[in-house]
Amino acid sequence: MELLNALILMANFVLVPALAYGSQLALGALGVTLIYGILRFSNFAHGDTMAFGTMAVILFTWWFQSMGINLGPLPTALLALPFGIAICAGFVLATDKLVYKFYRQQRAAPVIYVIASVGVMFVLNGIVRFIIGPDDQAFADGERFIVRARSFKEWTGLEEGLTIKVSQGITVITAVLVVAALFWFLNRTRTGKSMRAFSDNEDLALLSGINPDKVVMVTWIIAAALATIAGTLYGLDKSFKPFTYFQLLLPIFAAAIVGGLGNPLGAIAGGYVIAFSEIMVTYAYKKFIGYMAPGDWSPDSLLQLLGTNYKFSVSFVILLLVLLLRPTGLFKGKSV
Amino acid sequence: MSFLIGEKMTGGYGGADILHDCTIAADQGEIAVIVGPNGAGKSTAMKAVFGMLNIHSGRVMLDGEDITALTPQARVAKGMAFVPQTSNVFPTMSVEENLEMGAFLRRDNIQETIDQVYELFPILGDKRRQNAGELSGGQRQQVAVGRALMTQPKVLMLDEPTAGVSPIVMDELFDRIIEVARTGISILMVEQNARQALDIADKGYVLVQGRNRYTDTGQALMNNPDVRKSFLGG
Amino acid sequence: MTMNRNFLYFAIMAVLLVIVGQFQSWNLSLSILNLCLISAIMALGVNIQWGYAGLFNVGIMGFAALGGLAAVLISMPPVPAAWAAGGGGVLLSALAGAATIIGCIVAYAKLPKGRARSAIIVAIGVIGFFIMRGIFVPATDAIESVDAAKTGYLGGLGLPVILAWPIGGLLAGGVAWVIGKITLGLRSDYLAIATLGISEIIVAIMKNEDWMTRGVKNVNGLPRPVPFEIDLQQAEWFQNLSASLGQDVVIFSSIFVKLCYAGLFLAVLLAIFWLSERALKSPWGRMMRAIRDNEVSANAMGKDVTWRHLQVFVLGSMVVGIAGAMLTTLDGQLTPASYQPLRFTFLIWVMVIVGGSGNNMGAVLGGFVVWFFWVEAEPIGIWLMDTLTSGMAEDSGLRAHLLDSAAHMRLMTMGVILLLVLRFSPRGLLPEKTGHH
Ligand SMILES: Nc1ncnc2c1ncn2[C@@H]1O[C@H](COP(=O)(O)OP(=O)(O)O)[C@@H](O)[C@H]1O
Ligand SMILES: [Mg+2]
């Protein structure tokens, strides 16, 4: 019984939240890694692209809500998602045309792209705050829980309850579907394979007649879609605040680097590695140890490795460790 | 006039010129071989013929048509194929995917061509699902040549296809190249192993410092005492 | 030619400041000037990294914040009650932390490679960490409860605040060394990502470790290197001076103080500028630029590129740290929440790129120009929005929204300026002098 309670406790506070958060990071990191693989730079604007896409989704959600359109128990945002993706993709393609394309033609050094992406990041930052403001926005509707702690307790007779939010369920299912679709696209379709070829060996891809403009365009569209989906899921699960999305940049980069920049599988693994580490390091184990320890003994302190204020320093430390020990990442990404 | 000819090409990578009035050519079904010391500009000449760098005088003709202004991709569409000296495969893609990428511009059924490549290089058929980056050097070169053949080119350009492979594999590769030439494809090839290469060549070019030093049939060059002394090690 | 151009641009800057002095107020003009001087120093630091060596530092904010931290730790009076309550505990937990790290390193060096070693290292780390926190948490709790409204922190060393400037530089340089050691030599993106991360963490620490920085309660009333206005107003010589200049004592005292700061900052700026120029023209600087322009061939020539990049990165970060300490000194308070990446990282980048990367004079000019317009853009932006929306109804929601959002437009404008300069005039207002290498 004690053991079961301990396990449910962990599932409730670590497993479920980390699965959801990890899925969001994985989707974000996939976008970063794809851009790195194809366009060969770390896109600092990715966090703000997520914010921009999510903002578009929110605006459509509000509009649908005002017209009384909804998805019943599911959040209306899911319905708004395709529209948000379209707008985000349009914007991202415009930045490519106005900003990055020039440097591609110049064959500029990677650091120049990075600086340009920082410029784009601030423009996006301004646009998002200008349109929707810097504050928290609520846009989740529909049913809130799949499993409620109270009914779980009544049902199992355990002391500990398990809560699974709708947003968490949707996040994991969407992530699985999106990743499956992406891998199908990359491994089975002509365009997807040409993207992998371009990422592998740009010169040879050109010699094979692969059209670089198309590869770049498709990459941006996919990255915009991934960013919008990741951002919307994160917003549904937690909340939408532009600055939070900027801060997500660090765990997302960490996830992509841990998995090996340029390697899509690695990005997914990296997302979960970061999410689980972050949550496990900032979780207070007091109650858990109390259940596990024999008798009624329970530790005095919270047994928390790190305060939640420092949760993003977990990704940073992992990032540094990977760079120190294995700069190509766990799954061997592109060259250092 | 030859089927493919880079005529009096002068140019380089933007700095000082590397090529000076350099001419190389290949006829239908013929093997033309370029030899010369390291840094002579052999690879540069190949890239110039394929449109990968700008030449500011001279021209490139294919089948009587001036293609000097075309991009490399456009030349692929015209029936030229190029196997670069280094990084000439897609390492994280399977052998079969490498071949598919070679045929990227084709919209018809490519299965037949894939089968032909597997016939030419049986080992590739066995390893079709393996990533090209995991293959041995010789096998990788076969993938590279196979990829280039996928467009069903009229001209195949090879930059040191036997670099870094064992002598046995080299002989094997040369045999395959002769086989390809028999099907009517023109072959323009740079080689470090000058003796063996001139042995199978219909025509040979000796380049030194970006200029044509000797041009003759492969046999004649082999028999030329000056060439033997300076470039074939006696 | 370049001489003239330098002179021209700086003359225009001076005229702009005079205009602000005449039409807005001299107090404002001098505050802008002081921040221009500090910005110029920060821009110099970043120019050392980017202009000399092509290193992209996205963590300028963190290094400036370290300078601010130094100002508090050096200049504030110590709080004896807090030291008595938990000072020993903090020191002890620091020792425990050091012992843990040494334990891990010793285990790594002495034990045979394998799973057992990894397990032991992890065990030492985790146990050591818990011991450290076991001492640390009660100690800091005790410190924070000592007169929380006024102190609640350990205070500083009570030394002259000027000392904090070099110390701030050292602090920033130390952190830069660790980050550089790990990421330099890898792809340039990694330095950018790592600096972004470290700066966020530094600021998070300053916001949350109340026992050290009072966190969001801020540290107010830092000692000053210059006299207080109130003292001046009461000093006889000063009253005489302002009378002889025909100035109001109160206003003139505030101007006088700002002038004192300006003098100090100018001295630091000139010193750092002179040193940077010397360095740039030395064989060391020439080598740096040679490496920047062609890393591959420099590598081939046997120059240890990574080591040299580490030197520049540390030096540049030190300059930023010094400027950060100066800024906190000028503010007279440490407000951790005010460290925003936009203001402290991004704006400095715009200064360097606009001014002219690689040219120290350009960086200084960029610091002046960009800061000036950053400050003056707000009134201009609000005025612009007001004019643009004047046709709308007073109570229109859109109008209110647009007016509220004017501040965000400023960010966007800076982003656009960065992108435009990078694209159309990548060498900036005062381009780097090339030619005789
Ligand atoms: N990408 C390049 N950019 C500038 N110079 C190059 C480049 N590639 C080769 N070179 C120079 O061109 C000359 C000829 O090189 P290359 O054609 O590769 O010689 P080869 O293939 O005969 O060994 C050499 O001096 C080499 O340094
Ligand atoms: Mg060569």
UniProtKB/TrEMBL annotation, chain A:
GO terms for biological process: D-alanine transmembrane transport; L-alanine transport; L-isoleucine import across plasma membrane. It is a multi-pass membrane protein. Keywords: Amino-acid transport, Cell inner membrane, Cell membrane, Membrane, Transmembrane, Transmembrane helix, Transport. The keyword Transport applies. Pfam families: BPD_transp_2. GO terms for molecular function: L-isoleucine transmembrane transporter activity; L-leucine transmembrane transporter activity; L-phenylalanine transmembrane transporter activity; L-valine transmembrane transporter activity. The keyword Cell membrane applies. One of its GO terms (cellular component) is plasma membrane. It is found in: Cell membrane. Its main location: membrane. The chain crosses the membrane at residues 6-39, 51-71, 77-99, 111-132, 166-186, 215-236, 305-325. It comes from the Bacteria. InterPro entries: ABC_transp_permease (IPR001851), BCAA_transport_permease (IPR052157). Belongs to the binding-protein-dependent transport system permease family. LivHM subfamily. This is Branched-chain amino acid ABC transporter permease. It comes from Paramylibacter kogurei.
TrEMBL record, chain B:
This is ABC transporter ATP-binding protein. The keyword Transport applies. InterPro entries: AAA+_ATPase, ABC_transporter-like_ATP-bd, BCAA_Transport_ATP-bd_LivF, P-loop_NTPase. Belongs to the ABC transporter superfamily. PANTHER family: BRANCHED-CHAIN AMINO ACID TRANSPORT ATP-BINDING PROTEIN LIVF-RELATED, HIGH-AFFINITY BRANCHED-CHAIN AMINO ACID TRANSPORT ATP-BINDING PROTEIN LIVF. SUPFAM superfamilies: P-loop containing nucleoside triphosphate hydrolases. Keywords: Amino-acid transport, ATP-binding, Nucleotide-binding, Transport. GO terms for biological process: L-amino acid transport. Residues 4-234 form the ABC transporter domain.
From TrEMBL, chain C:
InterPro entries: ABC_transp_permease (IPR001851), LivM-like (IPR043428). One of its GO terms (molecular function) is branched-chain amino acid transmembrane transporter activity. The keyword Transmembrane applies. Its main location: membrane. Keywords: Cell membrane, Membrane, Transmembrane, Transmembrane helix. Pfam families: BPD_transp_2. The keyword Transmembrane applies. Signal peptide: none annotated. It is a multi-pass membrane protein. GO terms for cellular component: plasma membrane. This is Branched-chain amino acid ABC transporter permease. It comes from Paramylibacter kogurei.
